Structures are given as structure tokens and as C-alpha cells.
Amino acid sequence: MKKNYEYLCALRKVMKEQGIDACIISGTDPHQSELPPHHWRGREWLTGFESENGTNGTVVVTQDEALCWTDSRYFIQAESQLADTGFKMMKEDGPEAVDLIDWVTEHTNSGQTVGIDGMTFSVSYAQRLQQELNDNGVKLNTDFTPFDIIYPDRPERPKNKLFVHDEKIVGQDVDSKIEAVLKEVKGELANAILISALDDLAWVTNLRAAGDINFSPIYVGFLYLDEKGSRVLFIDEEKLSKEVEQHLDKYHITTAPYDSVKDFVSKLSKDTRLLLDPQKTARGIYDHVGCTPVFGGDGVAKLKSIKNQTMISNLETAMEKDGVALTRFFMMVEKEYPGGKLTEVGLGKALRALRLSDPSCVDESFSPILGWNAHGAIVHYEATEETDVAIVGDGLLLVDSGGQYIYGTTDITRTVALGTPTQEQCHDFTLVMKGHIALSNAVFPAGTTGHQLDVLARQFLWKEGKAYYHGTGHGVGYFINCHEGPQNIRLNINPTPLEPGMITSNEPGLYLEGRYGIRCENLIVTEKYETTEFGEFLHFHPMTLFPFDLRLFETSIMSAEEIKWVNDYHTLVRERLTPLLTADEAAWLAEKTKELK
């Protein structure tokens, strides 16, 4: 058995000592972050199911069972990493899905106690859990913090310095953002707000940090705002430089210790109506609120999702820089591939170096996914020294990567053939691209949601009995998180409409376990198309600038409109990138963007 089994035994001992019959451990932090700092990644340490990109997983442990729930993106990875740990993988989506809370209620009895760390579960999740448990006479303890005992080498909370994100690049100052947020607060019949989500916090304050969160320049803290003018940033003071202190003073934002937030909300005046987003606020904070809580959407995510023209223009600059780095990367791949010395890990390091050679690129936006053949079928594959393979023979290389530029966040996936592709690979690639093109070409009335458009990307795969089970598109931040809401494009119903200024990914795929994976991703911005007697219509414009592999298109199953889209897009790529390239690079790009017939 792996070392993780010892950790599991230690956890069960603590549970027994504290009267906990079952515990639930999340994979997040007090801010409900997708990528929590390592201080809060105890679930990964406990189970061994981990990744630099973070993993979606929630654990349930009893004295007899140890289960780890995850979604379809991670099934293959979880099965492998959980082997010999004492943990069993459970599927949270797909035909074999089991609801975690249903499982817990079915496996606990009246009078027993379930333990959670309330600071790592949202109010909404904990409320549903508590209701289900109460119905069965089971108690919920929200102060169960076993990692304080069993995790002796737990990393400290991040203490990285903050820096100001220049308002000339952002296009909006902090005062106007706070004014917009408080307008949303008033609309929810509240007079104060506690902002917990770290990307929302970074957006409102125009502050960033390098290193708090892997691959995202956001920082750890909370922000309280109210209509009386109080503005309090809860943060570890070691993180503040003189420049940042001056920035905070300029906008009348005071500071308080990070750990004082619970005491602060417990002492708010009774006439305070504190707006809390139940999906973003930790149950452990809510339990201390001494005023009237108001549950509702805080509006910050919506404000953040709509990029102004300054941001969009700057993001175009970031895309050009990204396109140059990718051109140099794939040129290198083609040149070195015949020598048989390329590896997945080596390619990841090379791509990172090329991006970071531009001074405006602070970091990657996630750990790159470089999957050769069978590894490409693992949706969130991460090459390590243990899994690394050489890029030899014929096959498909899937490269999903991105950069955190001060001008914006990029995220792109390309699948390329090395050697000679098979007819089946070309056919599958073209099915995926037909879906990508259909979504790219969509024209739709204002008010349309991503859920209503999602089928456009899946239709051609479905017609042949094929499918992918991840979302087609996610929102993308502006030098914040690579993944952001509230909009998305996926099968699940999401009431948020797509609006002008929203940046969203378009990334259909197909994955044949043990063989190869295909994903084709651009970032697209929603724009106004036209206004007619029937109302306003919108469409998408591609932001990403890099060609798709012409060798993989099966033109016999493509329409004239689809072929035209590819040629028009490649013309755009060539026109935007060529002035930034050397003569050799420009010649290579010209070959990769030649007319598809």
C-alpha cells in the first residue's frame, strides 16, 4: 500500500477520538477556489489524487469506507492515482454516477455525526447536506479540521507580495468598480457585501499576486464593502508593499488581519444586511454572521465577465504574443520530431520557456496538457517523470496550454499529426472541427444562453454515435483565472445569457481511451451582430491566433461554408502574426495557413 493508506488510518483515528462517524473532505479552500493554494490541498495529500492544475474531488471516509468522488475529466487519472491508497473512485457524472450526499445519508444512522471543515464548504452545499442529514436524525459538525492534527508538513498560507494591475491596462478604476458592485448589492435589498471569491477580489481591487495560486495571479483575502463607505481588505499584512499600501489608501481601503474576518462579521451592527453569495461563501464564515444575512448572487462575477474595449484590445495583443510563442514551439516540434528525442515533459518545459520569454507573460495560465496518442485521451492529463513518454512513431499530439499576460489570459488547444495520420484520425478530427466551426459561426438573439448553443458543437459527433462529456466552453478571465463564470457553454442548464464583451472558450473534443484524443480550442468574444425588427442579434469573433493542422481535415465531409471558415480564420492568423515573425517563421506560418481546398 502507498503512504496514503497511513494517512487514511491516522484520519480514522482522529475521527474516532472526536466522535465523527463519517467525514467529508472537499478539495477547495475558504474561497471555494477551483485551484486552491497548497495550504488547503489536504485532500490531495490524503489521497494521492493530485495535479498541478488541481483536481476535482471530494472525499468521504467512514471506519469502513474511503471514497473519492470526481468527474469524467479525471476518471482515468483517479483510477491510476488512487490505486493502493485505500481509496476507491466514485463517479459524480455519467451513467454510473452516485450522488455523494445521497450516499452519506444512506450510510449513516440516526444519532451519528458527520464532520466537515465549514471553511472549505460553501453555504449552499452545507445547507443541502445538513437538511438531508437532519431528515435522518444525523448531526453535522462543521468544525472538524483533521489536517491540523494529521498533516504535520502542511504548507503555510501563501505570503507572496501583491502588485497593482495598471489601470491603463484594465480600463477601469477601483472606485467605479466598487460603485458598480454596491449597485448590485442594493438590487439584492442589502447594504453590505463580503466578497470571498479570490478572482472577484482581484478584479475589484485591481491587485494581483504572483505565487499565491498556481497559474493565476489572484491573491488570498476577503473584502467587505458597505453603503456607508466602509472598505476593509482582510489580508496577511506581509503581502503588502508600499506601492500597494498607497493604492489602497487612494481608494480608502483599510486592512485587517486575514484571520479576523469571522470576528468582524460577528460584530456587524444589527441593521446591516450582508449580501452573501451562498455558492462562494464558506459555511464557516456564515456561522459567525451577527447581522442579517441576505443570500443572492453578488453580481461581481457578471460585472467581471464583461470585458471593456480596453481589455479586449489588450487581449488581442496577448493573443498575438501567444501566437508567436506557439509558432516557435510547433516549428521546434516539427524540426526535432524526426530525431526521436522529444518527450511530453520536455515539450512542456520548452513551451513554458517560450511564453515566459516575453516580459509581459507572468506565468502559464495552467499546467500545459501535452498528450501523445493514448495520453491525449486523458482530458486533464499532466505529464510527469513517471508518466512521460517519447514522441516517436506516427500519432496525434494534443497540446492544451495558455499564458497569463498582463494584457490578458490565453487558453488554446491544438491537436496536430506527427508522422502519418490515419483516415480514422482525420475523420474524427474533422467531426470535432465541424462542431467547432458551427459554434464559431453561430448568430443568436440577445438573451441566448450557452446551454442553448452547446449542441451546435456536439451534433456531428452525436450523428455517428460519438460524444465528449466535458463542457464545450468556459468563461475566461482577464489576467485572473483561466476558468471563470458566470457564463459557459455546456449541456447543463445555466441561466446566464451570453453578452457582448464576454470571453468564452470553444473546445469540443473526442477521446478514445488507450488510443488518442482530439480537442480544438479557440477563445471567442461575444459581439453585437445586428439589430432587426426582431431584436438584437449577437455572434462570436475568434480571439486566438494559431492555425489548425491542415493535414487532419477530411474535406469530403465538409461543406463549402466550413472550408471557407477555415480559410478565413487562417487568413486572419497569417495577417496578424506575420509582421511579428522572422522570415523563416513567416514562411512556416504561410505553409500552415495555405488554402484548404
Structural description of this entry:
This protein has 597 residues and is of the alpha+beta class. The chain has three domains: 3-150, 3-Layer(aba) Sandwich (Creatine Amidinohydrolase, Chain A, domain 1); 162-301, 3-Layer(aba) Sandwich (Creatine Amidinohydrolase, Chain A, domain 1); 306-584, Creatine Amidinohydrolase, CATH 3.90.230. 34% of the residues lie in helices and 21% in strands. It has 19 helices and 28 strands. A six-stranded mixed β-sheet has the order 4-3-2-1-5-6, with helices on both faces. The chain has a six-stranded mixed β-sheet with strand order 12-11-10-8-13-14. It is globular, with a radius of gyration of 25 Å. The termini are far apart. The mean pLDDT is 97.
Features:
about 600 residues; alpha+beta; Creatine Amidinohydrolase, Chain A, domain 1; Creatine Amidinohydrolase; 6-stranded mixed sheet; 19 helices; 28 strands; about 20% strand
What's the gist of this structure?
Helices cover 34% and strands 21% of the residues. It has 19 helices and 28 strands.
| Unreliable stretches covering 5 or more consecutive residues | none
Q: Strands of the biggest beta sheet: in what spatial order?
A: 4-3-2-1-5-6
Instruction: Please identify the top-level CATH class of the largest domain.
Output: Alpha Beta
What count of helical segments does DSSP give?
A: 19
CATH homologous superfamily assignment of the largest domain: Creatinase/methionine aminopeptidase superfamily
Number of domains: 3
Rg estimate, integer Å: 25 Å
Largest sheet: 6 strands, mixed
Spatial shape: globular
Give the DSSP E fraction (strand runs of 2 or more residues).
Answer: 15-25%
The quaternary state of the protein chains shown equals single chain
Indicate the structural class. Answer: alpha+beta
| CATH fold descriptor of the largest domain | Creatine Amidinohydrolase
Could you tell me how far the N terminus lies from the C terminus, measured between alpha carbons in angstroms?
57 Å
CATH architectural type of the largest domain: Alpha-Beta Complex
How many E-type strands?
Answer: 28
- As a percent range, the share of helical residues equals 25-40%
Determine the mean pLDDT. 97
